[in-house]
Amino acid sequence: MASLFPTLRYGGDYNPEQWPREVWDEDVALMRGAGVTTATVGVFSWGLLEPSDGEYDFEWLDDIMDRLHEGGIRVILATATAAPPAWLVKAHPEMLPVDVNGTTLAFGSRQSYSPSSSAYLEHALRLVTKMAERYGSHPAVEAWHINNEYGCHVTRSYDAESAAAFRVWLEARYGTIEELNRVWGTAFWSQHYSSFDEVGVPSATPTFGNPGQNLDFDRFSSDALLRLHRAEHEVLRRITPDIPITTNFMGFFPDVDYWAWAPYVDFVTDDSYPDPADPDSYVVAAATRDLMRSLGGGKSWLLMEQAPSAVNWRNDNAPKAPGQHRGHTLQAIGRGSDGALHFQWRQSKAGAEKFHSAMVPHAGPDSRVHREVQALGAELASIEGVIGEGVDASVGLVFSWDAWWATRQYATPSRLDYVAEVLDWYRPFLDRGVGCDFVSVEATDEVLAQYRVIVLPSLVAVPEALLERLDAWVTAGGTLVVGRQSAILDENLHVRLGGYLGALRRTLGVRVEEFAPCAERAVTLDGSVEGHGVDWQEFVVVDDAEIVASFADGLTAGGAAVTRREQGTGSAWYVATRPDAQLAGAVAARALAETGVEGLIATPAPGVEAVERGSVRFIINHSGTEQTVTVAGEGLTLAAHDAVLVPRH
Ligand code: GLA
């Protein structure tokens, strides 16, 4: 896997416009001292770059770009379109986003635009064109950063232009109103439409709205943001064909389908803020790194933003303990990131983010945070050999935004936290030092063939084609693990009849007749795997499978809870409950054992992960206590928040 970058990138968002120019020279000197390679500039600068309609002021940006270049710092240059200026909003108040209740969201923070606003897009593209023409040949520029965190605050808007764009999108998708009626199942509560003109956005309704309409508005809203990204992308590609382009993703962000976006970036970037006060936050962080690597399917990925210490947007904003930030950073590098950038370089003195940590904190460079920043910069320089090296994964977890959106619908058997279910199944592999990728529902046979174990964690809505491909993959030797409620719906959220699980009924040899949620209650299991079910049981009919464990109590006592069936040279497991950590661990361990996959960690230790990237093994203790662990047969003791890098021969 070739990287776009010559060495690991290190640095962060830099907002020089917040500081007098005397500070700029100090910034460049400090960056050099900290091993910074890269600054992301101009992310929220539209109002200063175009202070009034069509009047531009690039002098200050020219100046800082030149200073950074003279200091040897490369620039990821933002297109500055994430926060439209006051004059534009004043001239086009119709561009403001409208929430589900019809409230217009006023100017005064950022992202003050409806994703479907034509006035916004026209002015954004005019600015992007100017930026590309002016800076496309500036020697400091190493990449374009389009907009910023699309959808972070405004994922969707219910304004008139959005409603019109939604109708156009629906007509393109369905062709005829009859097809829309069929897919949405409108022969229900008198929801039938006679023409596309009658269809609106799913605003606040008296009770549950139409599931198809809700799902399509989720899809449309992701596409509406992607349309903005692609429009900027086209301008940049045309004017500056050789400069790589990205936009920063937000990990497991609910509202934007990053599988659809990844083809439109040259390298994937991610913003990641694990809570330092949550001892488990390294788990979702690890999964996020693996997701970013997987989205690109072999492209470079780069950690674009992380906080050197506290953020400012939780109720209580814990700082990172000494060493904790190093652990987060090495986790990202170990899982494939070609560097580590931050929000932000110098901590703001004013504005809404003044209490957000930065690489140069309020206390100045003579501070704990900055000393750690300097040490980390030096350490990354010492391991830059990993650039371009890959991360092996023998497990694939199928992840789908459509399935996520299906779980957000109302009137379901029980509320299901999709990402929590994904992490239930990710964690046992992380704990054992087994490499995981995430896999799209559109994964081809070639992609599936890369994995020994594939997990479907509560993949509620799924196209039939994937189930057919997985059936063949099992026959060819794969081990499939299917979590509760998977495949109960098709991609239109229509129920699969005849016992849930669709085509998986054949592969698994079971079908599900009924669900039995049992809120906040653990269910005991009997059988050859240890552990409990949580919150949920199913009435499982076993047609042709081994019962590995049964429910020992609850409504379905005596019924199958965990089943396994051999097919061809593979096997398929079904787990008819939400597993606790012990049960997920036991099933994962059995699945790994039967495929001959050995994790780096034989006995999991709290907060410890181990991952191999090319020539380096990364062993990280994210916990606040000392841990002893055996990794690849070698025992070692790691102090609290310590990490060890071991060269591989
Ligand atoms: C996001 C944004 C940044 C900043 C940080 C604060 O990642 O992209 O501009 O607001 O959050 O954590």
Question: How would you briefly describe this protein structure?
Answer:
The protein has 18 helices and 24 strands. By secondary structure, the protein is α/β, with parallel strands linked by helices. The longest helix has 29 residues, at about 210-240.
How would you portray this structure in words?
The chain contains 18 helices and 24 strands. The protein folds into 3 domains: 9-156 and 228-382, Alpha-Beta Barrel (TIM Barrel), CATH 3.20.20.80; 395-595, Class I glutamine amidotransferase (GATase) domain (Rossmann fold, 3-Layer(aba) Sandwich); 608-647, no CATH class. The model has no long low-confidence stretch (mean pLDDT 97). Strands 11-10-12-13-18-17-16-14-15-19 form a 10-stranded mixed beta sheet, with helices on both faces. Strands 5-4-3-2-1-9-8-7-6 form a 9-stranded parallel beta sheet. α6 crosses α8, α10 (281-296) crosses α14 and α14 (418-431) crosses α18 (581-595). It has 649 residues and is of the alpha/beta class. Residues 148-149, 271, 273, 305, 311, 343, 353, 356 line the site of alpha-D-galactopyranose.
Secondary-structure map:
Layout lengths: L8 E6 L6 H13 L4 E4 L4 H4 L9 H12 L3 E5 L7 H6 L26 H18 L5 E5 L14 H15 L2 H8 L26 H29 L5 E2 L1 E2 L8 H4 L6 E4 L9 H16 L4 E5 L18 H11 L2 E6 L25 H15 L12 E4 L2 H7 L10 H14 L4 E4 L5 H4 L4 E4 L7 H12 L3 E4 L21 H5 L1 E18 L4 E11 L3 E6 L8 E8 L2 E6 L2 E2 L1 H15 L12 E6 L2 E6 L5 E5 L2 E5 L4 E5 L2
Parallel strand pairs: 1-2, 1-9, 2-3, 3-4, 4-5, 6-7, 7-8, 8-9, 10-11, 10-12, 12-13, 13-18
Antiparallel strand pairs: 14-15, 14-16, 15-19, 16-17, 17-18, 20-21, 21-24, 22-23
Helix pairs in contact: 5-8, 6-8, 10-14, 14-18
The site of alpha-D-galactopyranose has 9 residues, from loops.
